[in-house]
Amino acid sequence: MDAMANTKPAHATSADIVIEDVALRYGKGSSAVLALDGISFDVKRNEFCVIVGPSGCGKSSLLYLIAGLEARTSGSIRVNGKTVSEPGPDRGMVFQAYTLFPWLTVAKNVEYGPKRKGFPAAERKEIVEHYLNEVGLSKFADHYPSQLSGGMKQRVAIARALANDPEVLLMDEPFGALDSQTRHSMQKLLLRVWDHTKKTVLFVTHDIDEAILLADRVLVMSGRPGQIKKEIKVDIPRPRNMDLVMEHDFIMLKREILELLKNDDDEDH
Ligand code: ADP
Ligand code: MG
Q: Residue 227 contacts by C-beta under 8 Å, 6 or more apart in sequence?
């Protein structure tokens, strides 16, 4: 079986995401909503790319399209050269709402993908241990999601996504429901995991500090229909920490992004 050749938790090569002139219309006729229009951008291999934009501008929709959970109306989406037409293990998704299986233990949640792929038990055990260790939850393998805090649930969700060894990690406001202290420790954890795994990450947030802290590049979207308004490269050296928010470069970037979002708001009203 094909999966047998790839049972180690070694990492698949990261993909390029190439998006060309994508539009998405929800519904038909007079009630149709053009959620996205003329969306084109690339995400480079190993890049950490962050999308910010006003509520309702289509950020989630865009991730769903790349995940293959929603069908685009027009345009092309390729991940590692392959046209996206359905969900696949090459793309892992982490949502804002905790989406663990409540009836499965932490370990069984993480094991879910490798099990579906038909990996033998010994390999699955190795994968689960590796990724639970990566997110610092080895001691909680036998706990159930209901016994975990929000931050811990998202760490399991990250481990579960990584256990499939995806080429691309799609994250839709994954820390949006967490308190600020937990959020900061999750940001640090994610950057460490990203550094270890070198995945290509496309991360959605409405928190501009979070965007600048995490990103190699920030894509600023405008709303109705959602479009990419500007791409901003974040040249601040890594490792980055929260002290950065007081520094000149950080503040200038933040002002630029806030200004772009504010203009969009003005155009709306
Ligand atoms: P964001 O994540 O940026 O807040 P969404 O992608 O959730 O934005 O939504 C973009 C637009 O598409 C919004 O106007 C929203 O109301 C609309 N929309 C999202 N999902 C659906 C759906 N399943 N059916 C109809 N309209 C939708
Ligand atoms: Mg959303």
A: 36, 37, 38, 39, 221
Tokens of 146: 């209901």
Query: In 3-state terms, what secondary structure has residue 130?
Result: helix
Q: Name 232's bridge partners.
A: 218
Which atom of ligand 1 lies at the shortest distance from residue 53's CA? 3
The domain locations on the chain are: 1-90+167-269, 100-165
Mean pLDDT of 142-163: 96
Whether domain 1-90+167-269 has CATH 3.40.50.300: yes
Quick one: pLDDT at residue 263?
A: 79
Residue 71 CB less than 6 A away from ligand 1: no
Greatest CA separation found in the chain?
59
Ligand 1, atom 23, lies closest to the CA of: 26
Residues in the chain: 269
